[in-house]
Amino acid sequence: MRILLVRLRQIGDVVFTTPAIRALRQRFPDAHLTYLVEPAAAPIVRGNPHLNRVLVSERRTGVGGWLADLGLGRALRRERYDLAIDFHGGPRASMLTWLSGARVRIGYDIPGRAWMYTTRVARPRELRARHSVENQWDLLAALDIPRPDPSAHPVEMSRDEDAARSVDERLARAGVAPSDTLIVVHVSAGNPFRRWPSDHFAALVGGLAACGARRRILLTSGPSEQDAAARVMADARANATAAAAERIVACGDFSLDELRALLDRAALYIGGDSGPLHVAATTRVPIVGLYGPTLPARSAPWRDPALVTRSIGAGALPCRPCDQRVCAPGDFRCLAWIRPEQVLAAAEEALANW
User: Fold this and answer.
1) Are 24 and 30 in contact (CB under 8 A)?
2) What is the pTM assigned to this prediction?
3) What phi and psi values does residue 296 have, to the nearest 5 degrees?
4) Checking CA distances to 88, which of 183, 230, 243, 261 falls within 20 to 30 Å?
């Protein structure tokens, strides 16, 4: 049996498909499983032990992009897939699933694209307090696969040993010893609706650095937000004692493979609801997640409940959750109202229970 899985992006969404990959391998142990993904999220599945093949296809625009996708579709059709599952549901993913010519094509019942599938699954348009892993798992209902359990089907990402060696070398150059308590604070997010204020991050980082001589607070960010990380570091150091300021370090950008390896070294991860948080969930590191317009019920780390995980939000607000297009109050209160002392208390609790 040949199975094609399609989930082109984003990083967190691709992470959320990995429990389904494991379940499909358990249900069809002899099947050939191919995963189609775009480059940014490819490291999540590239080393997945349950997959036979990972196809990486760059998203292009214009006529050239359409022609490339038609060529990819022809290549997929030649593979003669028996089953294709579109976890994405976007226009490009739907078209490629259809072009694959798989005998059974499972996807969401989306107006204008549902005809591309042989089996259609309802997907409510409203934002529900239901986890994304479960929402995607609905596509497996027709395959006699039992409901997901985070203990049995956690998210996963394989460790890259070359990346791990690179991380070890970079940490050593930054003065971080293996015996240090390494706390990773990710200060950026994919959009402004999920970005905790930088002054809050600075206060948090300063508080963490003040509480332990062997602590090292490592700031990370997305490639486009290095300036934000530099501001947080400068502000945190400016308001810290000389000893505490030395505990706040940066090592530049980390690839996804390097981030995964870095978190194997960490005692705690703190960050907003973005791709790096879900990469953290593939490890055993304690996590403190910050939730503004999104709900933990929908996107909290999907992993063994015995692992330390804390989710912090601003509480019930009439505008929360939202579609992250316009901030109705105009002040991003769902994040701004999360106080640094709340996060610091959760971080200290997580460290104490690690």
Assistant:
1) no
2) 0.95
3) -55, -30
4) 261
